[in-house]
Amino acid sequence: MKKILSLFAIVGLIVFSSCEGPEGPPGEDGTNVLGAVYENIAPNYYNFTSPNYSVRFTFPTRIYDSDVVLVYRFGGVDSSNRPVWQALPETYFFDDGTRDFSLKYVFTYNYVDIYLDGNDRATVPADYRVNQIFRIVVVPADFASKVNKNSYLDVITKLNIKESEVQKINF
């Protein structure tokens, strides 16, 4: 019986260590499955108003539990007329150093809430409260640990996402 098992083991080793054949043709390029970017655009600006001072965006498809959501607020344009995207959370202070207000967000696998937090949200300057544009970026967790999350440009460059691939949304 031991001789038969030994024989099967030797034959199995020979069969499973087969020769290599010629290399096959290269496969097609894959699609960008690393991340997604969403933006609310004109005329769908968001206005933080009473009583909630918050907005919810529901993802069109469920994101993975391991994904990370990054949110950026449009802060205007720089001297070269390029958009400036400011990473949330953002906190603003009074001249005396006490906190005035913050723009923050929380997310789950199917939505992200962006909200205005502060002592008197109705007095927050209009530049931070009305006609707001946000970019919501979904990235895998392992990618998020390797990129400067404070730089929108760094994130989308490393994700290889082009401006034309930003998905337009309504809140």
Question: Can you describe this structure?
Answer:
There is one protein chain. The chain has 171 residues and is an alpha+beta fold. The protein has one domain. Helix content is 18%, strand content 33%. The protein is built from 4 helices and 9 strands, in the order αβββββββαβααβ. The protein has a 5-stranded mixed β-sheet with strand order 4-3-8-1-9. A hairpin with a 5-residue loop joins strand 3 and strand 4. The protein is elongated, with a radius of gyration of 25 Å. This is Dihydrolipoamide dehydrogenase.
Topology summary:
Layout: H1 2-16, E1 36-40, E2 54-58, E3 67-77, E4 83-87, E5 90-93, E6 99-107, E7 111-118, H2 126-129, E8 134-140, H3 141-144, H4 152-159, E9 167-169
Parallel strand pairs: 1-9
Antiparallel strand pairs: 1-8, 2-7, 3-4, 3-8, 5-6, 6-7
Helix content: 10-25%
Main-sheet strand order equals: 4-3-8-1-9
End-to-end separation in angstroms reads 73 Å
Main β sheet profile: 5 strands, mixed
Q: What fraction of residues sit in β-strands? A: 25-35%
Q: Assign an overall shape.
A: elongated
Mean pLDDT: 86
Tally the beta strands: 9
Protein name: Dihydrolipoamide dehydrogenase
Organism: Flavobacterium reichenbachii
Key traits:
9 strands, alpha+beta, four-stranded antiparallel sheet, 171 residues
Quick summary:
With 171 residues, the chain is an alpha+beta fold. Helices cover 18% and strands 33% of the residues.
